TrEMBL record:
Statement: the UniProt record of this protein carries the keyword Zinc-finger: no
Family matches, as InterPro entries: LigD_pol_dom (IPR014145), MtLigD_Pol-like (IPR033649), NHEJ_LigD (IPR052171)
Entry keywords, A to Z: Ligase
Highest taxon of source: Bacteria
Pfam families found in the cross-reference section: LigD_Prim-Pol
GO molecular function: ligase activity
UniProt protein name: ATP-dependent DNA ligase
Length: 305
C-alpha cells in the first residue's frame, strides 16, 4: 500500500506526517497517531527538560517488536527550522566525529521527532548555548538499575537512603521512574568542571555500596548484581545520555519515564505502583503539574566529598 501522508501546521510550522494508523505497540494496539497525540499533550511539561539539550533519538520504525536504532545525527531530510547543535565527540574507534544533534525546543520539533517513530528521547546532563557551545553539567543523575530478582521496589528503598545522603550534602533530590524496571534520581547543580559531577556521584555510590553491600553495588560487573541495585553513577559522563522526563519507552506497553513524588517512592510496595502508561501520565500532569517544574530553581555547587 502507498504510504499515507498528510501535511499539518503546528505553531506556524508545516510538517508532514505519515502512517498515522500504524500500530507501534502491537500488544497494546497503540498507534503512531496516539504517540503523536501523547507528545502533543505532554509537551508543556516535557519541553523544558529537552530545551537546549542535544538529543539522541531511539527510533522504532517497525514498532516496539521491530529492531530499534539510536540516531544522533539529524537527517538531511529534516525541516530547516529544526534547531541543531554541531558537537565533536570521541567516535567508537577512538577518533573524533562531528555530528549535528537535534535540539528539541518546541512543539513542531517534538512532533517531527514523534513522526520519525522516535519513541524514546535521551538527553545529556548538560546544555548548549545559543551558538551550540557545550556548557558544563547542570544536573547530577543516579540511575538505579535492579538486578533480578530485585525490582523497582528495591530501587525505592535504595533511593530513600541515597536521597538522605544527598540532602545531607545540601542537594535537592527529584525522582522519576525509568519507564522500564528502574528509576533515576536528579539533583540540580552548578559546576565549571565537566568531571566534577561524575567524581561526586562515584564517591556517593561507592559510599552507599560500602554501607549496604547486601543491597547496593557501584560497579557494573554483572556477576555481582543479581538481587542488588546497581547505582550507575557513570551517567554523569558528558558522553552519556539518560531517558528524558516524560519520554515513552519502547516496551510492549507504552510506559513513560515518569516524575514521581517522594510520598509515592516511600509508599511503593509492588512494581505496578510505579508503572505509568501514556494516558496515566497525561492525567497525572493535569492533576499534579510537572513534578520537575522547579528543578532549575534549586541549583547549588556540587558538594565536596
Amino acid at each position: 500500500m502507498p504510504e499515507e501522508r498528510i501535511t499539518v501546521e503546528v505553531e506556524g510550522r508545516r510538517l508532514g506526517l505519515s502512517n498515522l494508523d500504524k500500530v507501534l505497540y502491537p500488544a497494546h494496539g497503540f498507534t503512531k497517531r496516539e504517540v503523536l497525540d501523547y507528545y502533543r499533550r505532554v509537551a508543556p511539561a516535557m519541553l523544558p527538560h529537552l530545551r537546549d539539550r542535544a538529543a539522541t533519538f531511539r527510533r522504532f520504525p517497525d514498532g516496539v517488536d521491530g529492531e530499534p536504532f539510536y540516531e544522533k545525527n539529524v537527517s538531511r531530510h529534516a525541516p530547516e527550522w529544526v534547531r541543531t547543535a554541531r558537537l565533536t565527540n570521541r567516535g567508537r574507534r577512538g577518533g573524533e566525529e562531528t555530528l549535528d544533534y537535534p535540539v528539541v525546543e518546541d512543539l513542531p520539533t517534538l512532533m517531527w521527532a514523534a513522526n520519525l517513530a522516535a519513541l524514546e528521547l535521551h538527553v545529556p546532563q548538560w546544555t548548549v548555548g545559543p551558538r551550540g557551545a557545550r556548557k558544563p553539567p547542570d544536573l547530577l543523575v543516579f540511575d538505579l538499575d535492579p538486578g533480578p530478582p530485585a525490582d523497582v521496589v528495591d530501587c525505592c528503598r535504595v533511593a530513600e537512603t541515597l536521597s538522605d545522603l544527598l540532602t545531607g550534602d545540601g542537594l535537592t533530590v527529584y525522582a522519576k521512574t525509568s519507564g522500564n524496571k528502574g528509576m533515576q534520581l536528579y539533583c540540580p547543580v552548578r559546576t565549571r568542571s565537566d568531571e566534577r559531577t561524575s567524581e561526586y556521584a562515584k564517591a556517593v555510590a561507592e559510599e552507599l555500596a560500602r554501607r549496604s553491600p547486601e543491597t547496593v553495588v557501584a560497579r557494573m560487573t554483572k556477576a555481582i548484581r543479581p538481587g542488588r541495585v546497581f547505582i550507575d553513577w557513570s551517567q554523569n559522563n558528558t558522553a552519556k545520555t539518560t531517558i528524558a522526563p516524560y519520554s515513552l519507552r519502547g516496551r510492549a506497553v507504552p510506559t513513560v519515564s515518569t516524575p514521581v513524588t517522594w510520598e509515592e517512592v516511600e509508599a511503593c510496595r509492588k512494581a505496578a505502583d510505579l508503572l505509568f502508561t501514556a494516558e496515566q501520565v497525561i492525567e497525572r500532569v493535569e492533576e499534579m503539574g510537572d513534578l520537575f517544574g522547579d528543578i532549575a530553581e534549586h541549583r547549588v555547587a556540587v558538594p565536596a566529598r
